[in-house]
């Protein structure tokens, strides 16, 4: 799960356990904040395929907010330097209705009530840039090359052709500061079934080689492994077999086409159990990434989804790439990590894969801490934690999917909260209703239960116990498909509801006083 948190938030640091969202702090700046904002935009699926434009734009316009005139008097465009008239376009255009609804549902931001002054907060500035860019792209395809993006920037802003070099120069500076050297264990799972022609399989291998070119390959940096599958499943090479880029690319080129069936589930299991094994080169602490490339449907969807779920639960981030319209998009989305908009792709050929390459590269190009703490202690708990009886509770300022929230709580020496009595539930509801007295309908907090194993059999899975006490809201649990995780719902004054586990929400962590660390600050890397 740690690698998934890396993709969602970038790197964060925690001081005495409390996470503060710097993306909503006025006049915050720096590469860490910018990357955290972009991760939230991607996670919300508002603009999942910006092809590095938002990252580049922040640096071009204000050097990630560090330029002296970023927060000048009387100007509120923030890091992305969005003018007032541009901001108003994002509020008023009917073309952006869907995007604004996603923003409200995923990040609890009502864009209709936002003010230009709010863009001094990095998340609001970045969101305005994303919405404005979407508006100007319209129904077209967003450009991927630096040259095309430079032209787009000039044509859609108040910059002139004389400033084109500014974009190029800034992009070069930014690329110089982002080397793909972080530890990643990267495994490709390649479909070689009969529905794929030998030529298509060669193009598949070329794509793998192109992705490998994006990274610094080496024992301490990025390691690569490959599984090829059809009816038979074979490991082409393990993570510890080749330590240079040239060696990996030569090995990929030597993989032979082997037509047959489409045993995707067995191929995923093979990758998890053999290639991602520490005996075969996988490293503790390295991000685990699987890229599944297929042109067809698996032979058993149920088994495939189960294998993918087990892989994700073991901490592997999965990207899926389907080629041709024969692919089952629902199945691909089910295999991929959340959100599927940034992890699952269908293309008619392998020629347009810039978005996937960008997402893969983003695993290793993350900035420094984007979160910090300012909270004070309560009772006998550490700073940022709230005392109730013999436990301490942390109410997050940031949003994560349910699985990532579970991992986040573990990293700060706790678990997601489990509620066993009416008294404890009343404490949680009272605290949250006070905290969100004016805006409670906009919030929801994950707690540690789900019915992922058996529908309507709710478990406190974080501690392995059944849910005995409940406080369901009206018409809850809804039992709608995919709503498998427990949440404290703001619209129900924080009674319980069930919701889609992959949607980012706030969350509550809990730990016993006896396990509460001291208040000395410590750096904890999510990723």
Could you explain how this protein is built, in words?
This protein is of the alpha/beta class and 527 residues long. It folds into three domains: 24-176; 184-362, 3-Layer(aba) Sandwich (Rossmann fold), CATH 3.40.50.410; 373-515, Mannose-Binding Protein A, Chain A. It contains 17 helices and 17 strands. The protein has helices at residues 2-9, 31-44, 53-62, 84-92, 97-107, 122-137, 146-156, 164-176, 198-212, 245-253, 264-275, 301-313, 329-335, 340-343, 354-362, 402-411, 422-435, and strands at residues 20-21, 184-191, 222-229, 233-237, 287-294, 316-323, 344-347, 371-372, 386-388, 391-395, 415-416, 444-450, 459-460, 465-466, 483-489, 495-500, 506-512. The strands form four sheets. Strands 9, 10, 11, 12, 15, 16 and 17 form a seven-stranded mixed β-sheet that branches. It is globular and about 65 Å long. Mean pLDDT is 82; it is low at 1-19, 366-378 and 514-527.
């Amino acid at each position: 799960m740690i690698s998934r948190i890396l993709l969602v938030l970038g790197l964060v640091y925690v001081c005495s356990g409390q996470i503060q969202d710097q993306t909503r702090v006025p006049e915050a700046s720096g590469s860490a904040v910018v990357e955290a904002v972009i991760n939230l935009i991607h996670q919300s699926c508002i603009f999942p395929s910006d092809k590095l434009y938002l990252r580049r734009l922040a640096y071009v316009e204000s050097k990630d907010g560090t330029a002296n005139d970023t927060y000048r008097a009387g100007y509120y465009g923030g890091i992305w330097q969005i003018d007032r008239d541009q901001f108003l376009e994002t509020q008023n255009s009917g073309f952006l209705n869907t995007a604004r609804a996603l923003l409200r549902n995923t990040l609890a931001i009502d864009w209709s009530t936002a003010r230009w002054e709010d863009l001094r907060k990095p998340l609001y500035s970045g969101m305005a840039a994303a919405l404005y860019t979407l508006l100007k792209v319209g129904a077209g395809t967003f450009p991927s090359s630096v040259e095309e993006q430079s032209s787009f920037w000039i044509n859609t802003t108040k910059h002139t052709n004389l400033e084109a070099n500014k974009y190029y120069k800034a992009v070069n500076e930014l690329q110089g500061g982002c080397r793909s050297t972080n530890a990643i264990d990267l495994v490709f799972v390649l479909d070689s079934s009969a529905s794929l022609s030998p030529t298509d399989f060669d193009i598949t291998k070329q794509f793998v080689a192109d992705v490998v070119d994006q990274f610094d390959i080496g024992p301490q940096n990025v390691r690569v492994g490959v599984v090829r599958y059809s009816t038979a499943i074979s490991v082409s090479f393990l993570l510890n077999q080749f330590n240079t880029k040239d060696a990996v690319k030569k090995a990929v080129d030597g993989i032979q086409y082997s037509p047959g069936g489409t045993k995707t589930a067995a191929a995923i299991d093979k990758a998890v159990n053999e290639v991602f094994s520490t005996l075969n080169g996988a490293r503790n602490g390295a991000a685990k990434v699987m890229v599944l490339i297929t042109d067809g449907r698996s032979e058993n969807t149920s088994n495939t989804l189960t294998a993918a779920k087990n892989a994700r639960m073991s901490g592997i981030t999965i990207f899926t790439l389907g080629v041709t319209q024969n692919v089952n998009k629902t199945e691909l989305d089910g295999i991929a990590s959340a959100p599927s908009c940034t992890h699952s792709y269908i293309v008619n050929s392998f020629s347009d894969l810039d978005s996937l390459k960008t997402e893969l590269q983003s695993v290793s190009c993350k900035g420094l801490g984007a979160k910090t703490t300012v909270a004070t202690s309560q009772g006998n708990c550490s700073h940022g934690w709230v005392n109730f009886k013999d436990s301490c509770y942390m109410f997050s300022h940031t949003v994560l999917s349910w699985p990532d929230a579970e991992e986040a709580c573990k990293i700060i020496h706790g678990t997601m909260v489990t509620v066993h009595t009416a008294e404890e539930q009343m404490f949680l509801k009272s605290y949250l209703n006070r905290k969100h007295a004016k805006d409670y309908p906009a919030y929801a907090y994950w707690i540690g239960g789900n019915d992922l194993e058996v529908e309507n059999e709710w478990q406190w899975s974080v501690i392995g116990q059944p849910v005995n006490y409940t406080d369901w809201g009206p018409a809850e649990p809804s039992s709608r498909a995919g709503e498998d995780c427990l949440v404290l719902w703001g619209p129900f004054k924080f009674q319980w509801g069930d919701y889609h586990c992959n949607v980012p929400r706030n969350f509550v962590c809990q730990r016993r006083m006896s396990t509460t660390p001291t208040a000395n600050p410590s750096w904890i890397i999510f990723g």
